[in-house]
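Please check this:
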Amino acid sequence: MLLKIILWLGLVAVIVTGWLLLPSPFWQYVFFLRIPLLMGVLLIALPFLATGALKSMLKNLFVLRGPGQIALTILGATVAGTAVTFVVAIILGGAPARFGVPELPGVSSSKVWYYVLAIALALPTTLTVFELSQEEMDNNKRWSGLFLGVSFGVIFLFLFKLIQNFLSVDKIPGINKVLVKAISFLTQHSSKAAGYIDNGILNNNHFDAIVFFIVLVVIYIIAFKLFMPSSLPPDKKIQEPPALLYVMLLISVSVLLLGSLTFFFDYSRISVLFFWVLIAVALYRLLNVDHYFTLKDAPEQPEEQKNLTALLQKRLDKQDLEEPLAKQTVVVVCASGGGIQAAGWTAQVLTGLQEELGESFTK
């Protein structure tokens, strides 16, 4: 107990010392970058938690069953890392104009760091998936999945770069005009548009994020169409995507949406948390999501059905009448937890045994 207190006091001392020594603009940027920082830390920490402190809860997320699942997960991690970098670029590039904070020295105007940071954020998930999936597949399949995943990631970044160049505001001025009008309408004040528009042109970082979001939506729609549940038999269905892919997509969408909202609302000192609570309350009231059921009193059961011993004895008496020489037997089937899935699986197994063994199975 004393050791824990000392560790906590040491941690507090380190935080306070850092707070006092580091300049104020540093903490301002930490605040404005809170969403991408949290999501970036999550991308890095999740694999370590899955192999460490939360192994019992998260490890199976990283244990995949085929090369296709490894490839999709690596692609998803690359997409998530790219989403984080775009939000970081938006805030670093627009914070000085929008919030009046000093520009950070050493922030490169080159976009190469986008891709370097995206790959770095995807690396922990990639390595952990490759390592833990050896429980379900041999080395050849793991290496195939790794090669496919890295290839998919590189192709994704390359295609996105091509789309960026093709849809740039310089080549299609009409896009810039429409987006500038939309932002001007939302801000309703020239000062509120700071950080978005420079000399009548949409900031490149915002445009890149919009293009990326469109690409992400297209990927989601394609994945939905490919993996949508159908009536085909299991052996003809495409291998289902891993749950970890959905986690990566959720991180991607969350960081883009929440990061964009914080950049917009921080100017007016409006909490995004308050914004989300307001939306949740409004949807709750408008969509009437509560479900009400009329509860009726259960019909009165005969006394003999309330007595378990009497019911078992009745079952044995019936068995004794049908086969007097047979040994009286009662089998109790215990299904492991899981609710409806456990009940369904138990029913399927018992039905299969009944079909295989005939009537003798239930005697």
About this structure: The CA atoms of residues 98 and 195 lie 5 Å apart. Strands lie at 197-198, 201-202. The mean pLDDT is 75. The longest helix spans residues 67-99.
